[in-house]
Amino acid sequence: MRVGRKIALVGGVPILVAAAIAAAGWFLLAQGERARAGALLAARVYHDLTLARMVRDDSVSARADARAAIETRFFDLTARAGRGLEALQNQARTRSQAERAAAARQSLGRYVARMRDFSAVARENDGLIAEMGQRANRLTDLAEQARQRQQAANVDLAWTMTGKVNRLRATRDVVAGLNAVLAAAWQGTLARQRGEEAAHSER
Length: 203
Fold this sequence. Notes:
The protein has three helices and no strands. It has one domain (3-163). It is an all-alpha fold.
């Protein structure tokens, strides 16, 4: 082997080793950055899913007029979590990691589907409750109108009965007056007859 080749070989080995070490370090650094990015992404997904669960619990006890906004918040959070899981699946370094991310996406899809079913049932129930409330209010109004009509009818009946009683009293007073007049006239007639009979007897 020539001296020049030996010098080149001996001098090149450290350079190649240094290049290999640098490449390995860059690869490990890239893997570390990728792992950190994946960890941050997984943390965001977990945070979104935790918030989505809390929002779901709030939607169960929410008023009908507030439920739509809560459901929108839930679907926004789960959609963002779904995109995060998809990114994790694409960034997975092993098949096992990709399969776990895919399984999580499927579970999230079922979770969202159940929430959509619940939302549909809740809207239907809210509609029925609102309709029942309207009917109850209508019945209350009708009952109040009937009560007012009955009250007015009772007042009219009371006035009618009072008028009849007053007329009966007036008639009774007239009859009593006539009876008194007739009785007085009868007494006068009897007195005259007795006077005439007494006069005839004296003759």
